[in-house]
Amino acid sequence: MTESTPPTASDIDQIAQRKKKLEQIIALGHSPYPSKFEWTTTASTLLKEYSASTKEQLETQKIPVRLAGRLMTIRGHGKAAFAHLSDGAQRIQIYVRLDSVGEENFKLFQLLDVGDLIGASGYLFRTKTNELTVHVDQLTFLAKAMRPLPEKWHGLTDVEARYRQRYLDLIVNPEVRETFVRRSQIIRFIRDFFDARGYIEVETPMMQPLAGGALARPFVTHHNTLDMDLYLRIAPELYLKRLIVGGLNRVYEINRNFRNEGISTRHNPEFTMLEFYQAYSDYRELMDLTEELLRSVVREIVGGNIVEFDGQSISFEKFDRWTMRGAVVRFWRDSKSPPSVESLQTLEGLQAAAKSHNAAAAATSSPRVEAGPDSSPGQLLGALFEAVAEKELIQPTFIYEFPVELSPLSKRNAEHPAMVDRFELFIAGMEIANAFSELNDPADQKDRFEQQLRMREGGDEEAHQMDEDYIRALSYGMPPTAGEGIGIDRITMLLTNSKSIRDVILFPLMRPEKPAADS
RNA sequence: GGGCCGUUAGCUCAGGAGGUAGAGCAUCUGCCUUUUAAGCAGAGGGUCGCUGGUUCGAGUCCAGCACGGCUCACCA
Hints:
Oligomer: single chain
């Protein structure tokens, strides 16, 4: 089944057969691994360009073609054969007959297996069943598949094998290719979107002496020459804001973040994040921009405003907007007796709400509010929101008015200093985006870092570290700025109807197939 | 980390209430010059994830372990 399991007799048999055939192919005078093939078209091109050409038209035109690809099926008929040649995306049928290709070439064909890579030249025609087909007059051997491909009808369905051997998954499961083509289109569209609005794309360090910009556990590595530990970044945020200080007033970055945390259908240790920052702006403007971005990416990639995801229709036409407190009230499990928005402003009210929620949740399997006795009001509200509302946010919904304790890098709300000007966007119960007006008061930022340090000393490994140079940068003056992060993998999940993040990451992290040999 | 489920031929899957392993595709041999999950006739191919246990006898029952999936927790 896998590289590391010892080959069975059948395995050896199949490989040995193909090895034998390769030797015979060499004996016929072919190079086993030729270096190139001059092709003039592809299966996809032919299928597109000649879909309307009739049998008669093709017969009179006798259009010459020269293409390469992988043999996906072979149907032999003695002195002739049909096969399908794939260019990776599409398959076109080829027809090989002894009296057309000649004896030498037909011998070569008989030594080919499904999976082999060949070049073919000939002309187009339509068969009895009207299938567009290449009538081959010459075959070129390009490379041998020494291992058999998965079964032609069912493909490769074993999830583990699909992730570990993505190349096989891509060869035999066309929808997988489609997913990753679409992922590429999404990212290209997003780049165009920001480029067109005057943002410049930048690259900031992935190896950082301090892992800042988010609350998460980092991976640690070491630079030998400098003899220093470095962290793989958990976010690019603090570097991007340094660029805002430097006068790059609109910047964005699309690249990997690394977080040393759990793996799930929504979390991979490395994942792709879009972050963008704009000077002289606030989080309200970003809500509008986010709506515009997502609505247009959906229109461009999916078409229309509706996305089907996991059996639900998600409309990108109009996004809901709720305060965090409002969402707790709105999605309270017992809609007849929700807490009041006002009660959720006090510690006592929040504790009562958490208690009441947990009492009701105990009877079911719904999530409980996890909070310690010394939890602050902001922590309680955050926990309450997660337990009560987060999973209910199927349609695109902005949640705003976040507690300051949960947001060490966000600007305080002018009227309610316990809250910050921040929002998150939820779709299909997933957190998709996180944005805020950036804290640009260096003194307040220093206080927030110190507050985080106290949490860190209290055992919170995810609390933010002190970043003196970032404080220094802010003290040169940062314009009022708004910034946002959008999870590219999760957007891709939504737009490809993928329920697992591993289906939108080409090579998701897996344990080794065999445990490392300990001596 | 908890719970549930899975691991049998290269691939996709069967194996009732323990009795020494099956199919289709793939492979091999033969036939076949318009097929398309081509067809016909025949053949080979298995450490039943690993290690123990129960039993006269284990793919099947039990325990532990490995890997994976789903889910809960964790995680913004």
